[in-house]
Specification:
globular, mainly beta
């Protein structure tokens, strides 16, 4: 994976105060799911992910809400056994404690934003 030219080599986040073309911060890799941290804080994180055709992320449950936005391709996301076909520009919130998984019938990229709150729910 190539780093943005302005990204410090020892940083796991994208450089601040520098414009980024968000769809280009992460590349597709054959037969893989790849993730790149955009911003990571104790209160939550923003991550870019790419999925090659045929790749999956197994069922998962998170204690936090997760906002997903499609930035390239078409994603198949299952939330509590309901399948959603999401296209470029679509966004969806995966509720806290919901069982969910991704299935790449074709390549796609997403931005995932997790806000670590909601203990009261």
């Amino acid at each position: 994976m190539q780093l943005n030219p302005g990204t410090p080599q020892n940083s796991s986040e994208l450089e601040k105060s520098v414009p980024h073309i968000i769809v280009e911060v992460i590349e597709y890799v054959d037969n893989a799911v790849v993730s790149k941290t955009i911003l990571k804080k104790s209160t939550g994180n923003v991550t870019a992910m790419s999925f090659d055709t045929g790749e999956e992320l197994d069922d998962k449950i998170s204690p936090f809400d997760n906002f997903i936005q499609i930035i390239d391709g078409v994603a198949e996301l299952t939330i509590n056994k309901v399948v959603h076909q999401l296209r470029l520009g679509n966004g969806i919130i995966i509720p806290a404690h919901a069982r969910h998984c991704f299935n790449a019938k074709e390549k796609f990229k997403i931005i995932s934003t997790v806000i670590k709150s909601g203990y009261e729910e």
